[in-house]
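Something for you to look into today, if you have time. What I am after is a single protein written out in full by you. I want to see for myself how the chain folds. Could you add the entry underneath, on a fresh line?
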Amino acid sequence: MVAGRTEDDLRALTVIPGVADSVTVLDVSDPLPGLGDLLVDGLAVGICGTDREIAAAEYGTAPPGRDRLVLGHESLGRVREAPGGSGFARGDLVVGVVRRPDPVPCGACAHGQFDMCRNGRYTERGIKELDGYASESWCVEPAYAVAVDAHLEQVGVLLEPASVVAKAWDQIERIGQRSWFEPERVLVTGAGPIGLLAALLGRQRGLDVHVLDVVRDGLKPELVVSLGAAYHCDGFAAAVAAMGPPDVVVEATGVPSLVLDAMGTTQHYGIVCLTGISSAGRTVRLDAGDLNRSLVLENDVVVGSVNANLDHYAQAAKALAAADVSWLQRLISRRLPLDSFGEAFRPEDDDIKVVLDLTC
């Protein structure tokens, strides 16, 4: 036992929101389950751009009355204790949902659509006012726990990003249903975790999927091709010339020029779903009149999509369960022990998904 620790202490990855470079592993008290809560042993957490933004003091809010926030919203754990009637049992693999509805609640939250909260008073595990899952043990309400198939133990941490992608596809299909809609060609811009998972769900729908990125060789092109999708790396215009105008674009980079290219290049009655978040302060030249004319005359739709509700988590769990586990395992480019968190927050050129192992 480390000096100063007690048997009730456990390690957690914490940060002081608003203070750059304050991420560290600290000993915290063992969580006390509330009435009906699951007690979960943490297995892994994924690190994404949001975590890095919080570490850089760009985002994040600690729980009320506290200066530190436990990080981690991409979770995976194993149930240690489950109350009777919870629907879970000791040994089950679970993922914790990130967002909780606002206390008012707004109309969207009241109808279970807390991913679409209208007043911004929602809370989020590991991001906004609620401790996250980057801890050796954590608690979660059964209503916000998602069961993971046992064969997904090595990749279940991908469920949260997959839920974001499941929501994006759900939005695309709901919008498409405003009229006859049988998309054939999909262009995904970006071959990071979101882009690759978007490609996976597109292929599961039987669509002709194309992925655009800047990397010319290595793991990303290999993963795309092994899905039965096409990989492009010579720019947006070249990709569209090779595949033809896409019916759907899933934009997963946030690069402003790609966002504008996507909005103006779809097939008639096309849908562009924006999942990447752009940095402020970047200026690009835009013929707003031409873009407006194209959107209106072609009945095009541009929609932003972020976060997920319980339905999307269920859809994501089903998609991962149906996927090739060996393919999913390759998405995790680095697995690091919790004490090596500093390396996890320094992205490498060939990274796709970096995961912290909470068991070592």
